[in-house]
């Protein structure tokens, strides 16, 4: 049987460590390091997740604050618009009433002017009609006959000319009064 040569030494005379034990120690250290890295990674992911959740919470709160602020801003604008619309509606109503009163006043005044201007024309027309009836009556009674045809023609021509002149006077009066 072979004899035990003794512990191995390196070139410097130092005792040599069994490479199997050295490899086992290095593998154990490597496992511990890998476990430590996995634990650190888990802790990092947990902290990162919490950080992301906090940011999401802060964004949600900020968005809610912005919605409330925007809602208040829009409500303020609507209040101003409603106030302006109310004022405008009142102004339009008042202006319409004022205009209606002015138109009515002008209508009444023009009607009075027109009636006053037409009154003499209507009086003359009534007088002419009265004279024409008198003349026609005198003609039919035989008064002032100079020739039956000539008298009749003269009466009708005079009546026609009278109506034409009255019509022209009425048109001129209406144009002047602007009815």
Task: Write out key terms for the chains shown.
single chain, 2 helices, rod-shaped
Layout: helices, strands, pairs:
Layout lengths: L18 H123 L6 H30 L2
Helix pairs in contact: 1-2
Structure in words:
The protein is mainly α. The chain has one domain (19-177). Helices cover 85% and strands 0% of the residues. It has helices at residues 19-141, 148-177. α1 packs antiparallel against α2. The protein starts with 18 loop residues before the first helix and ends with a helix.
Q: Roughly how many Å apart are the termini?
A: 153 Å
Low-confidence stretches: none
The percent range for strand residues is under 5%
Q: What is the mean predicted local confidence, pLDDT?
A: 82
Assembly type of the chains comes to single chain
* Count of helix runs: 2
Please tell me what the overall shape is: rod-shaped
Secondary structure tally: strands = 0
Order of helices and strands: HH
Can you give me a brief rundown of this structure?
The chain contains 2 helices and no strands.
């Amino acid at each position: 049987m072979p004899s035990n040569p003794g512990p191995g030494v390196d070139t410097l005379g130092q005792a040599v460590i069994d490479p199997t034990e050295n490899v086992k120690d290095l593998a154990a250290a490597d496992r511990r390091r890998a476990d430590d890295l996995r634990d650190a990674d888990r802790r990092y992911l947990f902290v990162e997740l919490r950080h992301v959740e906090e940011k999401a919470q802060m964004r949600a709160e900020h968005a809610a604050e912005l919605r409330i602020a925007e809602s208040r801003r829009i409500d303020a604008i609507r209040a101003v618009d409603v106030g302006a619309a109310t004022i405008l509606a009142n102004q339009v109503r008042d202006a319409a009433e004022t205009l209606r009163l002015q138109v009515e006043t002008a209508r009444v005044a023009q009607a009075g002017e027109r009636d006053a201007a037409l009154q003499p024309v209507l009086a003359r027309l009534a007088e002419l009609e009265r004279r024409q009836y008198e003349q026609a009556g005198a003609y039919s009674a035989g008064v002032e006959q100079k020739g039956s045809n000539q008298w009749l023609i003269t009466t009708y021509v005079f009546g026609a000319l009278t109506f034409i002149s009255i019509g022209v006077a009425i048109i001129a009066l209406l144009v002047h009064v602007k009815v």
